[in-house]
């Protein structure tokens, strides 16, 4: 039976970025408040994954243990790259997912983050046959895949996985026409093939929620009732074939802001689209680093460097031009907040770049941090806040 997209809310609750996730310190009471507000506002779609630290267990407590199973849809994902040593590991992941969530079945189950070298791991462990068995056993109602990929790769996935029922793709206005991402082409391919699309990373890991002043001036005029984040969310949700757009919400304020913007969802108007095009042009010329904070790079870094935090500091410098404050952010976010090693400790192995789904030249970014940021505030980096 095909997915009834009319029953799924346009705003999805992304569960990757819960505060305290890395240390298993997620505040369940606060998360429960967020979940309740989202459900009461008409939302019903939750997206998690086995690879998201402590996400499934927290969602199990805040959502699944407190609300009727038929009041929400829940999607999780399996991962093969860097996590599997044999096919049986995929089954182990699935059972841990069901146990952590406290459910008997998933509404959707996806192969997580296909594209580039990551695809080979799924092929090696015969993951699609496993996915089909999950549906056959009634442990997932629908199956599909998420991907950070080229249009050519996407066409091949669609051919290789003819039983797929849903596709999750990155969609945001920064990368929509970027030749390195080609998101528009991927969306058009999936839509023309008849797939419902789940839009992930619509705010690009928070980058589009905190743009430069030049972008703010453009968006303020065209989106007087939207935050910068909800403007980006509405762009993704307006793309053809999009069933729902995921927002990685981690505060009640974010939930309220997003739910307000989607209470009576309308696709972007012509004037709003024109403003987005202006914002795209400004941001593409600024050189903003397209880091989403997924931290897949950090998981393979032998030095334990806080790579996403370093990219946050670099983007602060790019967007606001203040090297001293960017340097303070580098020290505070990476060393003291994340408890990670600094970019200066990089051994240039390149493992991070191979793992990055955004294809960021991370080592070049580290060079830029060393040359353009650290010299203007090295003492600030070394001192505690």
What percent of residues adopt helix (DSSP H or I)?
40-55%
Overall strand count: 8
Strand order, biggest sheet? Answer: 1-2-3-4-5-6-7-8
**What's the number of helices?**
17
Highest-level CATH class of the largest domain: Alpha Beta
Structural domains: how many: 2
pLDDT below 50 for ≥5 consecutive residues: which ranges? Answer: 378-385
* Broad shape: globular
Describe the fold and architecture.
- Helix content is 46%, strand content 12%.
- It is α/β, with parallel strands linked by helices.
- The protein has 2 domains: 280 residues, TIM Barrel (Alpha-Beta Barrel), CATH 3.20.20; 87 residues, no CATH class.
- Helix 6 links the parallel strand 5 and strand 6.
- Helix 6 packs parallel to helix 7 and helix 8 runs antiparallel to helix 11.
- The radius of gyration is 20 Å and the shape is globular.
Please describe the structure with a list of short key phrases separated by commas or semicolons.
385 residues, alpha/beta, TIM Barrel, 2 domains, 8-stranded parallel β-barrel, 8 strands, 12% strand, globular, disordered C terminus
Helix-strand blueprint:
Layout: E1 11-14, H1 28-40, E2 45-47, H2 55-64, E3 73-78, H3 88-101, E4 106-114, H4 118-124, H5 127-136, E5 140-147, H6 151-160, E6 166-170, H7 183-192, E7 197-200, H8 213-222, H9 228-237, E8 242-247, H10 252-261, H11 270-286, H12 296-300, H13 307-320, H14 323-337, H15 351-355, H16 362-373, H17 378-382
Parallel strand pairs: 1-2, 1-8, 2-3, 3-4, 4-5, 5-6, 6-7, 7-8
Report a brief summary of the structure.
Helices cover 46% and strands 12% of the residues. The protein is of the alpha/beta class and 385 residues long.
